[in-house]
From TrEMBL:
Belongs to the ABC transporter superfamily. It is found in: Cell inner membrane. Keywords: ATP-binding, Hydrolase, Nucleotide-binding, Sugar transport, Transport. One of its GO terms (cellular component) is maltose transport complex. Its EC number is 3.6.3.-. This is Multiple sugar transport system ATP-binding protein. Its main location: membrane. It comes from Phyllobacterium myrsinacearum. GO terms for molecular function: ABC-type maltose transporter activity; ATP binding; ATP hydrolysis activity. It is a peripheral membrane protein.
């Protein structure tokens, strides 16, 4: 479990500021959802937290350590993308173990960890298959599994369900919520789907044009939206 703090975080692409001073304090074990329209900066923010994109200004701290200059692999995070990003030529088992082999984890410990995570995500029968032989929902379970085996302090999800059909999306929402209850990790979940935000979050950050319009619990935003944008996006109609 970890605390994540953003202080006046900024990002400029070619002279254009796309993240305009974001402050957030995400508590230990919190399930925090970033929600906002397409292009508002959700993915950019997540990439800066993970270290995949350098920040143009401000500070990111994990457990009180400023990580601006810490390499992505050393931040203790794992990211799950919309596009799964599985290795097509490897089996599910190899996809799960790949990162761990790089960390020099003993073979027996890897096998045990994979067995445990495969059971948790109900992908045991799929371990011998290649990603091409899986359905969309199964692939997303494997992508989540690959993050889980690394035992990250913080999970980052970037619209992980947006490629799935509506029914499967609802099922996977429940799956991710169960995972959070079971592991207790801090999780940041990006979506443009208000329903997903309202049903999954402990805290929601509503983003618009590179700024946080409001940060609070779902009911707080629903009952007391800070402005008309939040009201229109998430709050009760007034
Ligand atoms: P979201 O994930 O909320 O849809 P993004 O974080 O992907 O939004 O993008 C935020 C803004 O930054 C958009 O205006 C987008 O065009 C711009 N942007 C994102 N990545 C790049 C990049 N690599 N180069 C230039 N502009 C970018
Ligand atoms: Mg995005």
């Amino acid at each position: 479990m970890s605390r994540l703090v953003l202080r006046n975080v900024r990002k400029t692409y070619g002279g254009l500021e796309v993240i305009k001073g974001v402050d957030l304090d995400i508590a230990f074990g919190e399930f925090c959802v970033f929600v906002g329209p397409s292009g508002c900066g959700k993915s950019t923010l997540l990439k800066m937290i993970s270290g995949l994109e350098p920040i143009s200004g401000g500070e990111i701290a994990i457990d009180d350590e400023v990580v601006n200059d810490v390499a992505p692999a050393d931040r203790g995070l794992a990211m799950v993308f919309q596009s799964y990003a599985l290795y097509p030529h490897m089996s599910v088992r190899q996809n799960l173990s790949f990162g761990l082999e790089n960390l020099n984890t003993p073979k027996a410990a890897i096998a045990q960890k994979i067995a445990e995570v495969a059971k948790m995500l109900q992908i045991e029968p799929l371990l011998g298959r290649r990603p091409g032989q899986l359905s969309g929902g199964q692939r997303q379970r494997v992508a989540i599994g690959r993050a889980v085996v690394r035992e990250p302090k913080i999970f980052l999800f970037d619209e992980p369900l947006s490629n799935l059909d509506a029914e499967l999306r609802v099922e996977m929402r429940g799956e991710i919520a169960r995972l959070h209850r079971r592991l207790g990790n801090t999780m940041i979940y990006v979506t443009h789907d208000q329903v997903e935000a309202m049903t999954m979050a402990d805290k929601i950050a509503v983003l618009r044009s590179g700024k946080v319009e409001q940060f609070g619990a779902p009911l707080e935003l629903y009952n007391n939206p800070a402005n008309i944008f939040v009201a229109g996006f998430i709050g009760s109609p007034k």
